[in-house]
Design goal:
Radius of gyration: 22 Å
Order of helices and strands: EHEHHEEEHEHHEEEEEEEEEEH
Largest sheet: 8 strands, mixed
Strand order of the largest sheet: 3-2-6-7-1-10-15-16
Number of helices: 7
Length: about 280
């Protein structure tokens, strides 16, 4: 399953934690698990939900003690080490026969680390043993378009190996503004923000994901005994999580909306559609 969000903080981690246990959260976007775990206290306390943190290293450049200043550097440090540290743990989780679900939170950051890892490997070929750029070399600061093939292949390998191992793999994503051709006031067409949101990071998931949903929240009336609570003439509301199904292996599921979505709600609907 792939989980995306139209805006951030839309209970996408909460949806991920509802998947079958035992479950491990491999968190890059530090903080989401702490916001969601209170709903799953029993699972956290019993160890059926385990947690691993993979914070991005802080690259502050070179420190000049004589001037008490930092000199920014374009040399990438630590991303390769972080990616392979995570990859080793991921492989071990795939081999664990007792583990049901692996949550990557977020795959947006994992993909960024994946790309920076590959760029760091390219940069290291341009550096001497002391970390200085070799004479005649111009330091690489970004990948060319064709070089993204390797990070993309790594991401697909992450997904396909989870399928082969029989694990549920939940990859949450940040959201970003969606850009496209928009009619301007003067009648011209320009590439600008459409006002919609889309999944950020590794986005070519249609050939590999079994289910892609967008999570979001919207206000709903607060009810007691089926009756709305009023504040004068205005109904009191609270934000409730929803998800829309964007893609699914079960075609009838596409376009469905789930209020307060959970794995069980989605799985039960799939079972009803299949007649199981």
């Amino acid at each position: 399953m792939e989980s995306g969000a139209r805006i951030d903080k839309t209970c996408k981690t909460t949806l991920a934690l509802s998947f079958p246990k035992p479950l491990v959260v491999m968190e890059f976007d530090i903080g989401g698990f702490d916001r969601a775990k209170y709903r799953f206290k029993d699972d956290v306390n019993s160890g059926t939900i385990k947690y691993e943190a993979y914070p991005i290293p802080v690259g502050l450049g070179a420190f000049d003690p004589s001037k008490l200043e930092l000199r920014p550097s374009k040399i990438i440090i630590g991303m390769k080490e972080l990616f392979y540290q995570w990859a080793l743990a991921y492989i071990k989780h795939l081999q664990d026969p007792n583990l049901a679900t692996i949550v990557i939170d977020t795959a947006t950051l994992l993909y960024s680390i994946d790309c920076d890892c590959f760029l760091q490997e390219k940069q290291e070929l341009q550096l001497d043993p002391k970390g200085n750029v070799l004479p005649g070399e111009r330091l690489r600061v970004q990948l060319s378009q064709v070089e993204y093939k390797e990070p993309n292949t790594r991401m697909r390998g992450i997904i396909y190996n989870a399928k082969k191992s029989g694990k549920h793999l939940v990859m949450t994503h940040h959201a970003r503004d969606k850009y496209g051709p928009v009619l301007q006031k003067d009648g011209s067409i320009a590439q600008t923000s459409t006002g919609k949101r889309e999944r950020a990071g590794f986005s070519t998931l249609g050939d590999s994901a079994d289910l892609i949903v967008h999570t979001y929240t919207k206000p709903q009336p607060i009810l007691i005994d089926g009756k709305p609570i009023m504040d004068g003439l205005k109904q009191k509301t609270h934000l409730v999580p929803f998800c829309d199904v964007e893609l699914a292996g079960v075609l009838e599921l596409v376009g469905m909306t789930f209020m307060e979505p959970t794995y069980d709600k989605i799985a039960t609907t799939i079972q009803m559609i299949r007649g199981g």
